[in-house]
């Protein structure tokens, strides 16, 4: 076990042991801050797009779970922020 200084701000340390799944997880963890930032920037556009999709659904009869999509986006952002 590695001991880190008390003022160390790391939340996680990923060690790569050559396993493909570990490598994929490391890439995902490394991308997480960028993914969160992109999702937060897109949140307003997603809401507008879902409102438009809801209106189109009323005319076309096509079923799109706009509430489920919006809920998934907001829950993912909250989870990433530890809320």
Molecular structure report:
The protein has two helices and no strands. It is mostly helical. It has a domain at 40-83. The radius of gyration is 19 Å and the shape is elongated. It has helices at residues 20-60, 66-80.
What labels would you give this structure?
mainly alpha; 67% helix; 83 residues; elongated; single chain
Provide a quick synopsis of the model.
The chain has 83 residues and is mostly helical. The protein contains 2 helices and no strands.
The share of residues in extended strands comes to under 5%
Gyration radius, in Å: 19 Å
* Amino-to-carboxy terminus distance: 29 Å
The count of strands amounts to 0
**What class do helices, strands and sheet pairing give?**
mainly alpha
